[in-house]
Design goal:
The chain starts with 9 loop residues before the first helix and ends in an 8-residue tail after the last strand. It is built from seven helices and nine strands. It is α/β, with parallel strands linked by helices and 219 residues long. Helix content is 29%, strand content 26%. Helix 2 packs across helix 4 (91-100). The longest helix is centred in the N-terminal third of the chain and has 11 residues, at 62-72.
Length: 219
């Protein structure tokens, strides 16, 4: 159904995903409506397909961003702390910031300085994005995302936007208890995994569906 969602405007793209049951929550719908993909894509702004953003990186298809937001939604309460690993263009970082509100905080991590600069520039294209950066509601940092960002831990939710070879222990350690992570894992075969850390610190792992992501690396 995802390919049916491409549109000529941001609003129509989002409403097409709602109509095709790719977005279920009003909170996710509203958060995505408030972020114009035109600010984050070099072309094909409203196509429901991944787009190259340079440096061997992509911005994921909108339906994948919707899936990530829906999966993490129970932990994206106002005031929550979120880690966005492989933040790339900064698009989903902005959506996540909308979901956690002005009292929350989202840290976007990428290992390529030029992508950190790109995300900052993209977010600065909107007034609300400028405010998020000014207040520290959103922070972009350059680091090896496989190691997370310990300075901001623990996180209520962690999104990983590139395929890890394995479930990195440092990311799980930085999850709050309770907390949830959305992460693609694998090489020739990749799957989205939902990782839940329970209140007692135990970890539950569930394989959700197959995907194709660029690899999570430090070079």
């Amino acid at each position: 159904m995802a390919w049916r969602c491409s549109a000529s405007s941001n609003a129509n793209l989002i409403y097409n995903m709602v109509a095709n049951n790719l977005i279920h929550s009003d909170r996710v719908k509203d958060a995505m409506l408030r972020v114009d993909r035109r600010h984050y894509c070099p072309s094909g702004f409203y196509d429901d397909a991944p787009q190259s953003i340079g440096f061997s990186a992509t911005i994921s298809a909108p339906h994948m961003h919707a899936s990530a937001a829906e999966t993490l939604l129970p932990f994206l309460r106002p005031g929550a702390r979120v880690l966005d690993v492989g933040s790339g263009s900064g698009y989903l970082t902005h959506v996540l910031a909308n979901l956690v509100g002005s009292e929350g905080r989202v840290v976007g991590v990428d290992h390529i300085q030029e992508l950190v600069d790109l995300a900052t520039s993209n977010m600065s294209k909107s007034t609300d994005g400028q405010e998020m950066l000014r207040t520290g509601q959103v922070v972009f940092v350059t680091a090896d995302g496989r190691k997370g960002w310990k300075e901001g831990a623990p996180y209520d939710a962690i999104h990983v936007g590139a395929a890890a070879v394995q479930l990195h222990a440092q990311l799980i350690e930085q999850l709050k208890a309770p907390g949830r992570m959305f992460i693609p894992v694998g090489q020739s075969e990749q799957f989205i995994w939902r990782i839940d850390k329970k209140e007692d610190g135990s970890v539950e792992k569930k394989k959700l569906f197959g995907v194709l992501y660029v690899p999570l690396t430090d070079a």
